[in-house]
Amino acid sequence: MSSRQEEKERRRRERQEREQAEKAAAARRKRLQMVFGGGLALVAVVAVLVVVGVVALGGDDGEAEVPAGSAQVPAVQETDLEAAVKAAGCKLVHAENEGAGHEEKDFKPSDYKQNPPTSGTHHPTWYEDGVYEPGNVPELGKLVHTLEHGRINIQYKPGTPANRVAQLETVMREMEDGYHQLLYENTTGMSYAVAATTWDQLLGCPTFNDKVFDAIRAFRTEYIDKGPEVVP
Is the peptide bond before 116 cis (omega within 30 degrees of 0)? Predict the structure, then answer.
C-alpha cells in the first residue's frame, strides 16, 4: 500500500473512531442527565438529608457514603495556585513534554515518564468530559489524548472513601458544571492519593485533606484549555 493510500486509510479509521466515540458520549451524557438531572427539588432533598445525617452523627468521619455530586465541601479559602498547593501538602510538577504522536495500542503506565502521565504518544481517539465510576476506568492512551485537548483530569487512587469521591464530583461540578474536566479512579499505581493533570502539568497530593479542593480549583483555573489542540 502506498504512503498516500496508508494516510487515506488512517484518516478513515480515525473518522470512524471519532464517530463511535461521539455516539458513546451522547449515550453517556443522556445517562448522566437522567442520574444527575432529576430536578432541583430532588437535589434539595438530598442535600438536606446529607446535612441532617452529618449533624446526627456528630460530623463526617471520612467513611460514610454520600450520594455523588451532593457532598458538602469546604468553601474556597485560597485561590493562588502556589499557596493552595503548599497549604494542601501537594506538589506541582511542570513536566517534560513527551510528544503528541498517535498510535493504536493498549498503553501502559510504563509507556510514560510521569505517573499519571501528562503528555506522550497516545491513542487516536479520546474520552468525553464527565464522571467515570470506579470499575469503569478509561483506557490510559485515550485519557492522555484528552490532555492534548486542554482537559483537566481529576483522579483518585483505588480505595478512596466514597464520601471523598463524592466531594471531588461536587467540586468538579462547581467549576462551570464540569466544563472540560474528567473524574475517574486511577489504576496506574500512582503514588498520590489524589491528582490532577493537564498537558505538561501535574498536581500530586500524597494525602487527601480538605485543603486539596482549593489546590484542584486553582490548578483548574490556571491550566484549563491550554493544551496544544483547541477542541470544544
Answer: yes
Containing domain of residue 39, as a range? 3-223
Pseudo-torsion of CA 53, 84, 181, 48, nearest 10°?
20
CA distance 185 to 3: 40
Q: Does residue 231 belong to any structural domain of this protein?
A: no
Inside any domain, residue 229: no
> Which residue is associated with the grid cell 497530593?
205
Specify the number of domains making up the chain: 1
Per-residue pLDDT of the chain (232 residues; tens, 9 = 90+): 456 666 656 666 666 566 655 555 554 554 444 333 444 343 333 333 333 333 333 334 444 454 555 799 999 999 999 999 999 999 999 999 999 999 999 999 999 999 999 999 999 999 999 999 988 878 999 999 999 999 999 999 999 999 999 999 999 999 999 999 999 999 999 999 999 999 999 999 999 999 999 999 999 999 999 999 988 8
Residue 228 inside a domain? The answer is no
